[in-house]
Amino acid sequence: MANRPVCIVAFSGGLDTSLAVIWLREERGYDVVTATVDTGGFDADELAYIERRSKELGAIGHHTVDGTTELFDGWIRHIIAANYLKGGVYPLSVGVERVVQARHLVDFARRYDAVAVCHGSTGAGNDQIRFDVVLRTLAPDLKIHTPIRELGWSRQQEADYLAEHGFDVDPSTTRYSINAGLWGTTIGGGETKTSDGVVPSSVYPATADPNDAPAEAQLLRIGFENGVPTTLDGEALDPIALLRRLDAIAASHGVGRGIHMGDTILGIKGRIAFEAPAAQVVLHAHRELEKLVLTKWQSLVKDQVAQLYGLFLHEGRYLDPAMRDIEALFDSSQTRVTGEVTVRLHRGSAQAVATTSPFSLLDASKAAYGEETGLWDGRDAEGFARIAAIQSMLAHRATEGDDGASS
User: Fold this and answer.
1) Residue of 103, 101, 98, 22 lying closest to 57 (CA atoms)
2) Interhelix angle for 127-138 vs 97-111, to 10°?
3) 122-141 pLDDT, tens per residue?
4) Which of 77, 145, 228, 380 could lock onto 376 through a cystine, CB 3.0 to 4.6 A?
5) CA–CA separation, 227 vs 78, rounded Å?
6) Same domain flag for 97 and 189
């Protein structure tokens, strides 16, 4: 057991968390243990580098945890069920990962009998709230250190501090903060600090510039079972492998880039660039499948509740019991969301062009939209239309006066 108190650091090996390790050791007298919870944003070489970086910075221990399955099962599958896009564009690419990471911080704190935990969030962004809410809920006894928030330094000042302690920093990290995960990547800093800054194409780490993408479109078939993506072009894959393969394919066609402007948890406006190729394709395909198999009332109720769910996710309210209630509704709604959607990828766009399901409500043998139907005849339709018009007609009369038209 170390003689000094132990602090567990949520560690990515980047600028902010590298500074945190040095600052906790040198300025606060802690022995530091670093924990990297991989939620799909690192490859093997990056994870090896992160471990080396931790040791170089003086941490007494380092742990890597694969959190991708936990992330998908706990949150991504519900985001898919919700068809949720914040502001109509952004699929909450990385914010939902913080609960997974915070939970493991607490687990390691208990294992090491630590007295504190640390994350690298700033004092202006959303992640500080997400981390803090989960940590205070699960472990109110632990002290939470946030050196980036506490110091209020610029990224250049952080780099200078590390350089003073003998550690080089990639100059690109002083301009942009990039967070990658299974459900997408966010890019902050640089041009995103203003509403009119145009993010250069070169900043997006994985997607092709749509102008340089293949001229020929590609068709993909995505199969769903109970709302979960399970096949790609007929091949059965676990959801994580499917998302990763789909990410690579869609990214090659320039699909998934976007800019999101919205309200931060603290009440100011914020802007980020993001790329989420698989998320964009899956959400689009899933929504089209739901249109085929759900009733209009199911869709209406679910869409309204989905807005609350997405807001709660964005604001870090992961552990509120209301979230489990909403997820139960989502689970019920997905029991017939099984089928296959064909998506056309072409130069930045993803378009659903065909949908099939054993639970299709478009029963061609009994009803064909716009044609003859066996479910009613013309007299039924005429009577329905007459009744459907009554309330609008009465409201019009009350407002405009009776014009003598026959009822």
Assistant:
1) 22
2) 40
3) 888 899 999 999 999 999 99
4) 380
5) 9
6) no
Residue where a domain stops, chosen among 159, 180, 201 = 180
In a domain, 1, yes or no: no
What tens digit of pLDDT does each residue of 155-212 get? 889 999 999 999 987 776 668 888 899 999 999 988 999 999 999 999 999 999 999 9
Q: Is 98 helix (H, G, I), strand (E, B) or coil?
A: helix
Close Cβ partners of 162 (under 8 Å, ≥ 6 residues apart) = 15, 18, 19, 22, 168, 169
- Average pLDDT of span 359-375: 68
Angle at 283 between CA 278 and CA 284, to 5 degrees: 100
In this structure, the answer to whether residues 210 and 71 fall within a common structural domain is no
347 and 224 share one domain:
yes
CA distances from 196 to 89, 177, 261, 405 (A): 18, 19, 11, 54
The DSSP output letter for 389 is T
The residue written with tokens 């530091």 in the block is 32
Q: How confident is residue 94, by pLDDT bands cut at 50, 70 and 90?
A: confident
Rg for the chain, CA atoms, rounded: 25
CA distance 372 to 200: 53
pTM score of the predicted model:
0.90
Question: What is the reported pLDDT for 31?
Answer: 97
**270 φ, ψ (degrees, to nearest 5):** -140, 155
> Containing domain of residue 81, as a range?
6-180
3-state secondary structure 234-262: CEECCHHHHHHHHHHHHHHCCCCEEEEEE
The two structure tokens encoding residue 147: 């050196």
Strand order in the sheet with 176-181: 176-181, 184-189, 269-275, 257-263
Does 381 or 85 have the greater pLDDT score?
85
**Token representation of residue 71:** 């992330």
Question: Tokens at residue 43, please?
Answer: 């490859």
387: Cβ contacts below 8 Å, ≥ 6 apart: none
Q: What is the mean pLDDT of residues 312-334?
A: 95
